[in-house]
Amino acid sequence: MKESKDLFSKQAGTYAQYRPVYPQALYDFLFRTVKHFDAAWDCATGNGQVAVRLAERFTNVYATDISEKQIAHAVQKRNIHYSVQRAEHTSFADDSFDLVTIGTALHWFDFDNFYKEVRRVVKNGGYIAAWAYAPFRSETVIDELLDDFTYNVLKEYWDPERKYVDEQYTNIPFPFDGVDVPKLEITVNWTREHFMGFLNSWSSVQHYINRNGTNPVALIDKKLESIWPVQEVKTLRFPLFLRMGGVK
To answer: What backbone phi and psi angles, to 5 degrees, belong to 48?
Structure first.
């Protein structure tokens, strides 16, 4: 069995503070599509941002992650039940959930064993929804710097599963009855400091630091000094791609 990767415990606080928030349009679509709202499983919950939104509609939300540190930073709510568990093997009973969500994490999983677990714990007629986001687009000069940092500076530091994100999940294994999904986007208004925090939450940046003993984010920060003043707020747009299917 492929081992689940815990790539975000070390920078759990940074992850919780600086990662972008998923748009309202995503949840509106999920809530229009799902038929029942008894229980949902938010898998690889991280800081719980998805679990909190699901808790607005579902009676109970069960949120899991393999990282104790991520769970420690998660937002608390009375109907959210957090636990440290692997995605591919949980303690949940058969036919427990109306919806399973995976926000920016499916590409890390052991697909065969995870999908076996999904079919076990999701009710007949329930759904699975998985999404992630592509690199943002902003001003051309910033886009070029980001692309150079992502695909050149960090080229050899990305885990191989990153390819599924670059392909926007078009080739990720997903053996469920497909649901037509809308075009989605995350829009954020960030200072350069927030952007630097976002970069520091990347697993590839941590790999670079571990191997070289220096932080590559300093390279792009230096290049941005002349075009992005410290207090200036810029609008960044992340394409958000979604796979959703019915579980039988």
So the answer is: 85, 15
Question: Phi and psi at residue 133, in whole multiples of 5°?
Answer: -130, 150
Can you give the C-alpha Rg of the chain in angstroms? 18
pLDDT value at residue 14: 55
Sole residue written with tokens 């796979």: 243
Handedness of CA 202, 206, 209, 211 (dihedral sign): negative
pLDDT in tens, 109-145: 999 999 999 999 999 999 999 999 999 999 999 999 9
Q: Give the chain's domains with CATH numbers.
A: 12-247 (3.40.50.150)
| Beta carbons of 35 and 125 less than 8 angstroms apart | yes
Instruction: Kindly report the backbone phi and psi dihedral angles of residue 49, in degrees, each rounded to the nearest multiple of 5, phi listed first.
Output: -65, -35
- The pTM of the full predicted model, rounded to 2 decimals, is 0.89
